[in-house]
Amino acid sequence: MASDELFADLELETFTRNESRQEKPQLSTTLRKLYTFCRRQAFSSYVASKRNANIGDSISQPVWYCCDKTFWEPSSVHKHVARTHENEVQQLTEVTFQRLLSQLEDKKCERPLPRDHNQEAVEISSWLPDTSYLTVEELQKGPGKVLLYYRYFRVDDPYTICAWQKALCEKLHLTGKVRVSTEGINGTVGGSVLATDIYIKTMCAHALFNSMEEDDFKSSDGGAECFSDLRVGVYEEIVPMGVHPDVISYQLAGTHLNPEEFHQEVESLQSEGESSQDTVLLDCRNFYESKIGQFSQCLAPNIRKFSYFPEYVDQNLDLFRDKKVLMYCTGGIRCERASAYLLSKEVCKEVYQLKGGIHKYLERFPDGFYRGKLFVFDGRYAISSNADILSECRYCSAPWDQYQLCATRFCCQLVLSCPACRGVGRTACCSACQSKVPPEGEESCAIGPAVLKEKCECTDRRPRIPQDAL
Predict the structure, then answer these.
(1) Phi, psi of 258 (to 5 degrees)
(2) Of 23, 169, 236, 296, which has the maximum CB count within 10 A?
(3) pLDDT tens per residue across span 385-428
(4) In the prediction, which pLDDT does 17 show?
(5) Pairwise CA distance, residues 10 & 454, whole Å
(6) To the nearest 10°, the Cα dihedral for 138, 359, 157, 226?
(7) Parallel/antiparallel/unpaired status of strands 370-375 and 293-295
(8) Is the Cβ–Cβ distance between 145 and 222 less than 8 Å?
(9) Cα first-last separation, the chain
(10) Are strands 403-405 and 414-416 parallel, antiparallel or unpaired?
(11) What DSSP string describes 182-236?
(12) Catalytic residues
């Protein structure tokens, strides 16, 4: 039996007799439940860390070793830890609890906003295209595409736009993700070439989107199979930076450079080499994106989420002081708010952003200064225009840049594991997760609420906001 299973139903109060003397945090009912869950996890983790420690592998039954004592029964080691290591368990509880609170705070910007039920519904059927002349098979079969687009503009009734988008995608048998907000729309959808073409034409014909052109939709080979389902919702931000749009508006964004202009700027920077001191080429994406592809000589922040970007800027202002900043992201949307935030700090000489992002740059310069793969947020994980491999297998360091999810059920970390290493079962993101990978044919399980992602060494050892230097 796995050590986690031994403690899954542990009644912690049975052993923590001195807990009442600990100063408990003043929490709401919900947070008290989470705190109790964290304490149980901490106690379980501490006991599990003593299992088979310094004991030979020849012993098949569970054994725990702590304080120069050997424990053969779970109840005995539980009592020992509760009586002797209460302070360590309490410290571990606080760390786990604070990490959980941070995780929940990060999720706030990902929650759809509830609709005001007093708001009158708007008829949207007239906004939908006539597809009566097409069969379902004609809409679904054939070559496919994935579209990526966004548009910042004032939306007075985002819930009606949301309902229209959901109905439109369902009618065209599209899958993907669409975020609607009072500040605009951001979407990536996949389907047949015919269906995506109808989607573009319908979008451009709508009164709110008639300023959009076909060129505003970036496309790549793919289809409906690239997404598991269709998710359309109303959110506070169309890209989650964690700063309310009323505080930092897209209208304050930096100067847009088309791919040709951006290419010239990067070419000039590359020609100067290390002698260039007044320009920063800034990658606004997450670390796992820039890991497999980037512009050379760029500054790629080692951050896990875009919502960490404002704090990264705040803690690294000297990197940008009196500099010209050239920033880029996948399709351009993150740069709109990122450049506005950076400009609000009033430390840069100039801030420029790549219009259309890497996607449009690669259409114009497939063998230009961007090397490696372009990470995409769908089942493909990456698309490429050149054969360069910038990253390596985490196990054997062989060149490798094809992501797959960690093999443990509730860990959502991405793993670079080459075919040779995968062939021998090396399929997890870290040693902690690797120990939880079930034998072939068995399904993994996790303790605690399924809505919580398991913690692992990857996230534990990564600083939330790194201190960078050029």
Answers:
(1) -70, 170
(2) 169
(3) 899 999 999 999 999 999 999 988 777 889 999 999 999 999 99
(4) 38
(5) 19
(6) 40
(7) antiparallel
(8) yes
(9) 50
(10) antiparallel
(11) TTEEEEEEEEEHHHHHHHHHHHHHSTTTTT--GGGSEEEE--GGGSSSEEEEE-S
(12) 329
**Quick one: which of 151, 183, 178 has its CA closest to 163?**
178
Which letter does DSSP use for residue 432 in this model?
H
- 467 contacts 315 by C-beta, under 8 angstroms: yes
How, if at all, do strands 255-257 and 350-354 pair?
parallel
Q: What is the DSSP string of 231-256?
A: EEEE-S-SS--SS-TTTS-GGG--EE
What is the C-alpha to C-alpha distance for residues 383 and 374, in angstroms, rounded to an integer?
Answer: 5
Among residues 181, 218, 180, the alpha carbon closest in space to that of 331 is found at 218
Q: Are strands 279-283 and 370-375 parallel, antiparallel or unpaired?
A: unpaired
User: Which helix (DSSP H) or strand (DSSP E) does residue 77 occupy?
Assistant: helix 74-84
Query: Angle 29-49/86-107 helices, nearest 10 degrees?
Result: 130
Q: Which residues, 6+ apart, have CB-to-CB distance to 135 below 8 Å?
A: none
Report the C-alpha gap between 5 and 426 in whole angstroms.
23
Nearest to 295 by CA among 374, 222, 238: 374
Cα 125 to Cα 53, 63, 116, 246: the distances in Å are: 66, 67, 21, 32
Q: Which residue from 152, 170, 250 is spatially nearest to 208, judged by alpha carbons?
A: 152
Distance set, CA 352 to CA 37, 252, 255, 278, 306 (Å): 47, 12, 5, 14, 18
pLDDT at 411: 79
Torsion over CA: 295, 299, 303, 308 (sign): negative
Are 426 and 395 a contacting pair, CB within 8 Å? yes
pTM: 0.74
Lookup: tokens for 180: 């609607």
Give 248: exposed, middle or buried? Use CB within 10 Å, 0-12, 13-18, 19+. Answer: buried
pLDDT per residue as tens digits for the range 8-33:
333 333 333 344 344 445 566 667 77
